[in-house]
Amino acid sequence: MMDIFRKLGEIKNLSPASEEAQNLVKTLQDFITNHYYTCTDEILSGLGKMYIGDERFKENIDKAGGTGTAEFSAKAIEIYCSK
User: Fold this and answer.
1) Residue 83: is its pLDDT beyond 90?
2) Model confidence, pTM
3) Which of 50, 55, 70 is nearest to 6 (CA)?
4) Are 41 and 81 in contact (CB under 8 A)?
5) How does DSSP assign 20-78, residue by residue?
6) What is the torsional sign of CA 15, 20, 22, 25?
7) pLDDT of 33-78, one tens digit each?
């Protein structure tokens, strides 16, 4: 899962609405569904908020993808879930 955040970090210079970012959000949702529990858009939206609202998550995500990755991921998730 952290590899997905690493990849999100690599593209954080793009728009969170970009096709690349949105495809990685879908990959993240599928990963969670396949390894943990069914990750609905509603659950994913809540996770996105938690990724920046909880310093432990933010720190780990930024460690994987660089500073700003948690914020970028949360915004990309917000856009993905609002479609």
Assistant:
1) no
2) 0.96
3) 70
4) yes
5) HHHHHHHHHHHHHHHHTS---HHHHHHHHHHHHHSHHHHHHHHHHH-TTHHHHHHHHHH
6) negative
7) 999 999 999 999 999 999 999 999 999 999 999 999 999 999 999 9
Amino acid residing at 2: M
> Using CA atoms in the order 10, 16, 21, 22, what is the torsion angle rounded to 10 degrees?
170
How many angstroms separate the CA atoms of 64 and 8, rounded? 9
- Cβ 64 vs Cβ 10: under 8 Å: no
